[in-house]
Design brief:
Layout (H helix, E strand, L loop, with lengths): L2 H12 L5 H8 L3 H13 L20 E9 L8 H8 L4 E6 L6 E7 L2 H12 L5 E8 L5 E2 L2 E2 L15
Antiparallel strand pairs: 1-3, 1-4, 2-3, 5-6
Length: 164
C-alpha cells in the first residue's frame, strides 16, 4: 500500500466526513490525487463502508446488544466460511468474526429486548446443524467504541468535542 493511501486511511478512520479537498490540504497533495486514491481503495475493497459511530446509550431507542460465542463444526470443503455466512445473513447480526480460543465465532447481535435476543439464540442460531454450543454475553455498557471513548468528559464534567 502506498504511503498516500495509508495517510488517507488514518485521516478517514479518525473522521470520515473529511472531503478530498480537506484531506489534500492536510497532506499537501492535490485534490485529484486524493480522490483517485480514495476511489482506488473503494474499488479494491480496502475501504468497505463509511459509517458513524453511535453511542446507543444516548438514544431514547432502547436496544439490547449481545456478544454470542459460537462453537461450530467446520465443513469439509468450506471450513468455517459457509456456517459463518449462514449466521451473518440473519438480520439481527451486526458483526461476525472467526476467532481463536474456546469458541470459533464471535457474533454481535442487536434486539429490542432480552427476550428477543434469547429467542434468536434458541430458535434460530442454536437450531443450525453445525452449531455445537453458544455462550451469550449481554453488553451492559460501552466504554470505548471503535477506538473512541464513548463518554469522554473534560475536567469540568462537560463532554469533549469530537470536532477538530
Amino acid at each position: 500500500m502506498k504511503k498516500l493511501e495509508t495517510d488517507i486511511l488514518k485521516i478517514l478512520e479518525e473522521d470520515c466526513r473529511y472531503t478530498p479537498a480537506k484531506i489534500a490540504l492536510m497532506l499537501e497533495k492535490t485534490e485529484k490525487e486524493v480522490s483517485e486514491a480514495i476511489a482506488h481503495m473503494e474499488e479494491s475493497g480496502i475501504i468497505v463502508k463509511y459509517t458513524a459511530i453511535v453511542n446507543g446509550e444516548r438514544l431514547s431507542d432502547e436496544t439490547v446488544q449481545a456478544l454470542i460465542e459460537v462453537k461450530v463444526t467446520p465443513q469439509k470443503t468450506n471450513g468455517f466460511d459457509a456456517i459463518a455466512e449462514e449466521i451473518y445473513r440473519f438480520e439481527e447480526v451486526k458483526s461476525c468474526y472467526l476467532m481463536s480460543g474456546g469458541f470459533d465465532l464471535a457474533v454481535f447481535i442487536e434486539g429490542k429486548s432480552l427476550r428477543e435476543v434469547a429467542r434468536f439464540v434458541t430458535e434460530r442460531l442454536s437450531t443450525l446443524d453445525e452449531v455445537l454450543s453458544t455462550a451469550t454475553h449481554f453488553i451492559l455498557k460501552k466504554y470505548k467504541i471503535e477506538g473512541t471513548v464513548a463518554d469522554a468528559e473534560d475536567e469540568n464534567g462537560k463532554r469533549l468535542s469530537v470536532q477538530p
